[in-house]
Specification:
This protein is an alpha+beta fold. Helices cover about 25% and strands about 25% of the residues. The chain folds into 2 domains: about 210 residues, Periplasmic binding protein-like II (D-Maltodextrin-Binding Protein, domain 2, 3-Layer(aba) Sandwich), CATH 3.40.190.10; about 210 residues, Dipeptide-binding Protein, domain 3, CATH 3.10.105. β11 and β12 form a beta hairpin. The longest helix has 18 residues. One of its GO terms (biological process) is peptide transport.
Length: about 525
């Protein structure tokens, strides 16, 4: 399996070169390397700006603007991409993943037993929480058990169900027992969702979603105004010598696409995270800026609530899936920047993905016939919920509304705030929901959270015993080719009778001022490389 990604800086006058599957330009010159971890990101194709302008300088604050604040900053409970962006600066896990390679983090070394069921981690002696407490094996035990505890309501808890026990052998030694070998375990433990948290903060009033964090990462929360700004200061006792270079990061939030583009062009911000695609060409022409593009990490979908009629009828779902023109949705919603998803959740170049489409061009007549067989020869009325401040998601919903009208489904779009969407989806109080899922380091993390019974992101509680068996079996399949085959079978089921119509994989871009250095993108995805950014000022 070949997963390809790159980041490329583009100066004025240079033609845009986008990742495979994105519109515009061809592939850039690149280097191939095999940094594979169980085949997840083999034969990586990349470019970056690892050491531009000489030796990195220390100091200064990076001003970053993103679209929306996170509703939940507790790393074990978060589900929004913005929370991952912020928390990967604040929290550390036992290990870290960079471009598919597992590297030490809080654990400086680890060993795995011959039968694959025991992992022993040796913690570094110089890892400190932001509270000043040293990170200990007891904190690791507490963190994993907190994730597994149903009371925590961790969205990804099902991925951890194979961990049978975690024991602190001494202050720096953690022993983890698995019920059976798990091919994804180290990758899982590298994610921000597996963050080791300060138990004294987690159990205090306010917990981990207030203005005090429980992390040990390179930055710590200095202040937080919900919905407006989060300021992070450098963690002076961070274990990695010389890192971070910055004194701090200042995050601001603005859902207005025009305002965000104006902010980076005026110099009000240093780093614009994922500008709207309609501004890409104008930003490219700005001589004061440079930008990076690569393969996408957000997989867009139309989710159906299978806990209620008529969406519990597989023929209704199939009719909807057949009626959609995914290329048109991509063109209108994201200016063509991305890849249509004509099969399951995974894009074609990811480990475990289907390489042949399940859906091609829309088949309106077949879709109508399926609706008639399901008892809806004249269609039906439906509500489609979308977050109002997400312009490209709203555009997706509008195209889907028009396309479904062709088979008699009369869609009313409900634009709501993100907090309302969060509560309504968790309560299964919706018909259809236009949303998206970030790609995860390992497929199991997404499949378990979003499509297995009891998964924290399985809105509508879709269940399919055959699908579930394939996902659970894949976890303990250590042969990567066999594991990929299991995922491909699962993806076909998801595409043909699952609860979501995948629509497109976006193409991600970041725009920065010219004196922002050290950008080393990793659309695995992870944002922990921000610790290596520095300012040439």
């Amino acid at each position: 399996m070949r997963t390809r990604f790159f980041t490329r800086v583009l100066a004025v006058g240079v033609v845009a070169a986008l990742a495979a599957g994105c519109s515009g330009g061809g592939e850039p010159p690149s280097t191939d390397g095999d940094n594979s971890n169980d085949g997840l990101t083999s034969n990586v194709r990349l470019e970056d700006e690892s050491q531009p302008g000489g030796t990195p300088k220390s100091g200064g604050r990076l001003r970053i603007m993103i679209r929306l604040d996170a509703n939940e900053l507790d790393p074990h409970r978060m589900s929004e991409t913005s929370a991952f962006v912020i928390n990967e600066q604040i929290y550390e896990s036992l290990v870290q993943s960079y471009r598919g390679e597992i590297k030490p983090a809080i654990a400086e070394s680890w060993e795995q037993s011959a039968d694959g069921t025991t992992l022993t981690f040796k913690l570094r002696d110089n890892a400190f929480f932001h509270s000043g407490r040293k990170v200990t094996a007891a904190d690791v035990k507490y963190s994993i058990e907190r994730i597994k505890n149903p009371a925590t309501r961790a969205p990804r808890a099902r991925s951890y169900e194979g961990i049978s026990s975690v024991e602190a052998r001494d202050e720096r030694t953690v022993e983890m027992k698995l019920a059976k070998p798990n091919a994804a375990i180290l990758t899982l433990l590298s994610t921000a969702a597996s963050s080791v948290v300060d138990r004294t903060v987690a159990e205090a009033a306010g917990g981990l979603n207030g203005s005090v964090d429980g992390g040990s990462g390179p930055f710590k929360i200095a202040s937080r105004v919900t919905g407006q700004a989060i300021k992070l200061d450098r963690h002076d006792k961070y274990w990695e010598q010389g890192v971070p270079y910055l004194d701090g990061m200042d995050f601001t939030f603005n859902p207005d696409d025009n305002a965000r583009a104006a902010a980076i062009r005026s110099g009000t911000v240093d780093f614009l995270w994922r500008p709207a695609p309609e501004f890409i060409d104008a930003l490219k022409r700005d001589e004061k800026l440079k930008w990076y593009g690569g393969s996408g990490s957000l997989s867009l979908h139309l989710r159906l609530n299978t806990s209620k009629a008529p969406y519990d009828n597989v023929k209704v779902r199939q009719a909807i899936y057949l009626a959609l023109d995914r290329q048109e949705i991509l063109n209108v919603a994201n200016s063509g920047f991305g890849t249509p998803l004509n099969a399951g959740y995974l894009p074609p170049d990811r480990f475990g993905a289907l390489t042949e489409p399940v859906y091609n061009k829309p088949d309106i007549e077949k879709a109508k016939a399926l609706l008639a067989e399901a008892g809806f020869p004249n269609g039906f009325e439906a509500k489609l919920m979308v977050i109002a401040t997400s312009a490209f998601q709203v555009r997706s919903a509008e195209v889907e509304q028009q396309q479904l009208a062709k088979i008699g489904i009369k869609v009313t779009i409900e634009s709501v705030e993100s907090t309302i969407a969060d509560s309504k989806t968790k309560a299964a109080d919706f018909d259809m929901y236009q949303s998206g899922f970030g790609l995860t380091y390992d497929p199991d993390e997404r499949f378990s959270a979003s499509f297995l019974k009891g998964g924290g992101l399985n809105y509508g509680n879709w269940t399919d015993p055959e699908y579930e068996n394939l996902i659970v079996q894949a976890r303990s399949e250590m042969d990567k080719n066999k594991r990929a085959a299991l995922y491909q079978q699962a993806e076909k089921i998801l595409a043909e009778r699952g609860p979501v119509a995948m629509t497109f994989l976006n193409a991600d871009f970041d725009v920065v001022q010219k004196d922002v250095m050290g950008y080393r993108g990793d659309p695995t995805p992870t944002y922990r490389f921000y610790r290596n950014i520095w300012l040439d000022r």
